[in-house]
Write a structure and sequence with these properties.
The chain has two domains: 237 residues, no CATH class; 216 residues, DD-peptidase/beta-lactamase superfamily (Beta-lactamase, 3-Layer(aba) Sandwich), CATH 3.40.710.10. The chain contains 22 helices and 18 strands. Strand 16 and strand 17 form a beta hairpin. The chain is elongated.
């Protein structure tokens, strides 16, 4: 994964994780005394799962839907635009001849992302440096602790060893676990994954007595039984990955506190009711006798969370055996929380299988057109309106959404005409003097000539009086692509938030051609005239190319349109992607070869 893509994933995951922490804390507070303490710990695993998931399924129940709605509302109502410029309507001759093919130029701005990539790489290096620094520190700390623990002596106290075996038998633990005494650790602790051991301060039985030692051993053995040391390492890993986000660290701090409280509950479940008070007194005694809490990432113990001593004591006082009804409620709540926390928002960008959108009366024909796409990853979809057939190549890419780039100019022109900014194909918008890299852009343009030279600034000015909210309404009514209109009203369709699939392009063209979109037939006819490319004598070709260039490399090309042939119409969309030389002109040439071989439209390229 490129640094840019990884950083976006990391930032998004960390942001969602922060939201989930707030939600989990609120839900825990809501059910503070209604659910078992174990549930209050296990609910945190939803956060762990969410942070390690490389991909989350989309769901309308996702809580992120609400945040996106609020964000979109703020963006839509918070951006205001003013516009200047002089528009003069001048009527000239129509461009193009019905018996020739005059392809429009495929001019497009290269998206030089060198500076942006540099910023992302710097951020990635900073993040990686933090990860390495924390990891090296923890590894060194762990190695030192490991070496030190191997030098410690095993406990030889017969009574304590016998008590230890009784505790293991009670918990049904058969694995050998070392019982070590040391002066270095000032509080009882559990340590080790491969060679687990329990560390006890020297002379603990003399200081606390065997009865309290029993409760301490049970607590540490529960950590082993619940595989808490593995969970601790996962948490440690996630904290390293998200070292820059204090909210994530805060959430795991609460999770570790809840783990100790849950561990207390497990111990109590093995004790008689009259022993609960003694167990609580043991925790207090440990903190009084061994006041230094454990402060490492790879060991845990009964005295490791002195900050929540009140909660632990209150939980012990309120402890009740597991109740089946409460467990069912906990399960139901957990399932619901999982649905809203472990899923991504179901936006319009969610992929929908194209076959589910096609009228079941229409036939789908899969074709192997790979010979036309050599050197590119591409797809082709064509709808034969008369035969009610869809011709599909590369089914996997049919639903893949990318920016429409210049193909959006068809809709941009319609909006400009509908709002009155443009009168017809001959409406002139004056050039403002900005020096563009293409000489053909550096002059006044009509709608017809703007299509011919794919003049970005013309279409941006044609829609300059349209607010972001109005643009959203147009896009939503048309159900165009993923319907995401965010940021700048002039550029959201040029590598921005708006994306559309090849199948959706064909559906839009069909609705456009058959006047099934909410625009006047006069305005639709004007745009039809401007995207007309020419004729081969029997068929008329209409279309629009689009390209994307990053760092002087053409990486994506569109060619969409339709062919009128007799009493039939063929709507098509071709998209190609590649590391270089993948642009609208090449997508157009591929399309024309396919159409010629199908005897739909013939031309000598």
């Amino acid at each position: 994964m490129e640094p840019t893509g990884f950083l976006f994933w990391l930032a998004n995951t960390s942001f969602i994780g922060s939201i989930l922490i707030g939600i989990i804390l609120y839900i825990k507070k809501l059910f503070h005394k209604k659910f078992h303490t174990k549930w209050h710990y296990y609910v945190w695993f939803l956060l762990v799962v969410r942070l390690v998931m490389p991909y989350a399924p989309k769901s309308p129940l996702s809580i992120i839907n609400g945040f996106l709605y609020i964000r979109n509302y703020i963006v839509g109502h918070g951006i205001q635009r003013t516009s200047t410029g002089d528009t003069t309507g001048i009527f000239n001759e129509a461009v193009g001849s019905i018996e020739t093919v005059d392809f429009h130029e495929d001019y497009f701005f290269p998206m030089n992302e060198g500076f942006s990539f540099l910023i992302y790489r710097i951020l990635f290096i900073i993040w990686l440096a933090g990860v390495i620094a924390i990891t090296v520190y923890l590894v060194i700390q762990h190695i030192k602790f490991l070496k030190w623990s191997r030098k410690c002596s095993d406990i030889n106290c017969f009574d304590l060893l016998q008590l230890f075996e009784e505790c293991k038998t009670l918990l049904n633990i058969k694995k050998h676990i070392n019982l070590i005494e040391t002066n270095e650790i000032r509080s009882p602790a559990f340590f080790g994954m491969i060679r687990p051991c329990i560390l006890l301060p020297v002379n603990i039985t003399e200081k606390l007595g065997l009865k309290k030692a029993k409760y301490i051993l049970l607590h540490e053995l529960i950590h082993y039984k619940n595989r808490d040391v593995y969970i601790n390492w996962i948490i440690c890993f996630l904290k390293i990955i998200h070292w820059f986000n204090p909210i994530i660290w805060y959430g795991f701090y609460h999770m570790q506190q809840d783990r100790e409280i849950a561990c207390d509950s497990y111990v109590l479940s093995y004790l008689e009711t009259y022993e609960y008070r003694d167990y609580g007194r043991t925790i207090i005694a440990v903190l009084e006798e061994f006041p230094s809490p454990i402060a490492t990432s790879f060991i845990m113990g009964i005295g490791s969370t002195s900050g929540c001593i009140k909660r632990r004591i209150y939980s012990i006082m309120d402890f009740k055996k597991d109740n089946r009804k409460i467990k069912l409620k906990e399960l139901a709540i957990s399932f619901f929380i999982g649905c809203i926390l472990l899923t991504n928002p179901e936006t319009a960008s969610t992929m929908t299988n194209y076959s589910q959108q096609i009228d079941p009366t229409k036939e789908i024909i899969q074709e192997d057109l790979s010979r036309y796409f050599e050197g590119y990853e591409g797809t082709f979809v064509m709808m034969d309106m008369k035969e009610e057939q869809y011709h599909i190549f590369n089914e996997e890419m049919i639903n893949k959404k990318v920016s429409p780039y210049s193909t959006f100019k068809i809709l941009s022109a319609l909006i400009g005409l509908e709002t009155g900014r443009l009168e017809d194909e001959n409406t002139v918008i004056k050039w403002d003097g900005t020096n563009y890299p293409f000489e053909d852009w550096n002059r006044d343009h009509t709608l017809a000539s703007a299509f011919q030279y794919s003049t970005n600034w013309y279409f941006q000015k044609a829609n300059q009086y349209v607010t972001l909210q109005q643009m959203k309404e147009y896009i939503n009514i048309l159900n165009y692509g993923n319907k995401r209109v965010e940021g700048d009203v002039e550029t959201f369709w040029i590598g921005g938030t708006l994306e559309i699939s090849p199948f959706q392009q064909v559906e839009f063209l069909k609705d456009f051609y058959t006047y099934e979109i909410p625009f006047t037939s006069e305005n639709i006819d004007i745009v039809k005239k401007t995207i007309q490319l020419g004729s081969d004598g029997t068929s008329i070709l209409y279309g629009k190319t689009a390209s994307s260039m990053i760092n002087d490399k053409s990486i994506l090309g569109w060619f969409i349109g339709y062919v009128e042939r007799g009493d039939d119409v063929y709507f098509f969309a071709t998209k190609i992607e590649g590391n270089d030389e993948a642009d609208g002109r090449r997508a157009r040439n591929i399309t024309l070869k396919i159409l010629e071989d199908k005897k739909i439209f013939s031309i000598n390229l």
